[in-house]
């Protein structure tokens, strides 16, 4: 493997942090700095059963260098974080459909793990760098620059070789005991398999927005009960209210019952709320009235744990006005596609978030530590959705079966290396049928 791209990535990240170090009080800034190198080797096979242009089959190696500085001394502390990412293609044969030449019958099609070039072939490498300036006063912290949020109304996607990034500002406050308040503004996104900054939209919305406002809080009402409320607004697309309740009931030694309730109310705003939205492409994909966003979605899941067993049972309902939506990239070319949803049903091959969809799901996990094999876990999930609204006003059904296997090495030279296998089978009367396989090796190397 050519080490030059990796060396360049590390040098860029280190230089970004070093720029501010000489000019500030360094005691806490340097002494509290943490750094690690995350490495991921991923083989990805995504086979769309009906497609005549072949399957996506790619293999790559990803590196993510995270450097988190401490804060300077004083009432107001300043710091700088950096993240540098590099993806190397190990195998990614074939090329995307060449529309000019009319090539539609391909054996292998790239584009899932790596950006594609103008000729449709996957790039041999891609990299991205993010810097985040931060300021802290008491228990309140402000961050401006690269963000990777994990909130009910916005989660960065990490389902491929490198994670998705956002650009904007965020404030988090923990001044009140048991209450965390968060708010901010997102302007741009960088897709998981892309280096390009793009505007913001929803799935299939081709007009870009550059303002996504959000605010909310997490209240630990009791040690075993958490309540959440968040509000988000994507300019010219939607405004969304989220309410969540999570309760964990300890039933005795190694036994517990968790209850997780989630509710979203999403309505059109700006251009999407007007007839002009359809003309200007501020629309949502799937079943809707002229591309207008109008959705309520709720889900309830119970997870019972006993010794090495964990069993989840749940149900989710999406109203008929439109598909459930959350933030996505405005441009999906050159590997920029991919978004995560804060839903129990957001799985390997599908999210079960179509208009009218009613989904029942079950998920089982077993930890083999009780059998003398610590680090080994296996699981399976099954989801079935019905009542999906389609254009001819009939309803459709779909289902997904997922299998997973994980093993973390417990000792020796390869201690903490995690090997994972994922398999998904998805069949739908309203979408493309998919078979998917992933083989993943993850390792995080602490540096500081």
UniProtKB/TrEMBL annotation:
Pfam families: OprD
UniProt keyword annotation of Lyase present: no
InterPro entries per the UniProt record, alphabetical: OM_porin_bac, Porin_dom_sf
Domain of life: Bacteria
Keyword list, A-Z: Signal, Transport
MF GO annotations: porin activity
Record flagged with keyword Endoplasmic reticulum: no
Signal peptide location: 1-27
Record GO cellular component, one term: membrane
Classification via Gene3D superfamilies: Porin
Family: Belongs to the outer membrane porin (Opr) (TC 1.B.25) family.
Protein name per its UniProtKB record: Porin
Native source species: Thiopseudomonas alkaliphila
């Amino acid at each position: 493997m050519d080490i030059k791209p990796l060396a360049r990535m590390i040098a860029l990240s280190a230089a970004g942090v070093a720029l501010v170090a000489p000019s500030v009080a360094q005691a806490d800034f340097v002494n509290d700095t943490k750094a690690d190198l995350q490495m991921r080797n991923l083989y990805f096979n995504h086979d769309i059963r009906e497609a005549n242009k072949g399957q996506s089959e790619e293999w790559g190696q990803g590196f993510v260098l995270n450097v988190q500085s401490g804060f300077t001394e004083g009432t107001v502390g300043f710091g700088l974080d950096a993240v540098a990412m590099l993806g190397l293609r190990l195998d990614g044969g074939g090329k995307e459909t060449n529309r000019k030449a009319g090539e539609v019958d391909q054996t292998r099609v790239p584009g899932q793990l790596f950006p594609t070039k103008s000729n449709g072939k996957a790039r041999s490498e891609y990299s991205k760098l993010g810097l985040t300036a931060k300021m802290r006063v008491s228990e309140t912290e402000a961050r401006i620059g690269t963000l990777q949020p994990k909130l009910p109304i916005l989660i960065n996607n990490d389902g491929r070789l490198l994670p998705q990034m956002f650009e904007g500002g965020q404030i988090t406050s923990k001044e009140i005991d048991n209450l965390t308040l968060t708010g901010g503004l997102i302007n741009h996104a960088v897709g998981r398999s892309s280096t390009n900054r793009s505007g913001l939209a929803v799935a299939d919305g081709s007009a870009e927005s550059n303002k996504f406002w959000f605010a909310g809080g997490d209240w630990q009402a009791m040690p075993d009960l958490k309540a959440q409320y968040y509000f988000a607004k994507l300019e010219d697309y939607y405004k969304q209210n989220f309410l969540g309740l999570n309760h964990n009931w300890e039933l005795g030694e190694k036994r517990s019952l968790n209850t997780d309730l989630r509710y979203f109310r999403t309505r059109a705003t700006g251009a999407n709320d007007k007839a002009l939205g359809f003309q200007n492409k501020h629309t949502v994909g799937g079943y809707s009235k002229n591309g207008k966003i109008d959705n309520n979605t709720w889900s309830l899941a119970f997870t019972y744990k006993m010794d090495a067993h964990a069993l989840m049972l749940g149900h989710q309902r999406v109203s008929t006005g439109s598909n459930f939506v959350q933030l996505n990239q405005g441009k999906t070319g050159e590997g920029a596609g991919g978004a995560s949803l804060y839903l129990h049903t957001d799985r390997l091959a599908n999210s079960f978030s179509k208009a009218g969809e009613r989904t029942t799901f079950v998920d089982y996990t077993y930890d083999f530590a009780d059998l003398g094999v610590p680090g080994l876990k296996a699981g399976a999930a099954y989801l079935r959705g019905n009542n999906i609204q389609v254009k001819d006003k009939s309803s459709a059904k779909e289902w997904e079966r997922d299998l997973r296997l994980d093993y973390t090495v417990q000792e020796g030279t390869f201690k903490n290396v995690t090997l994972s296998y994922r398999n998904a089978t998805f069949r739908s009367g309203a979408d493309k049928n998919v078979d998917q396989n992933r083989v993943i090796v993850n390792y995080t190397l602490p540096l500081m």
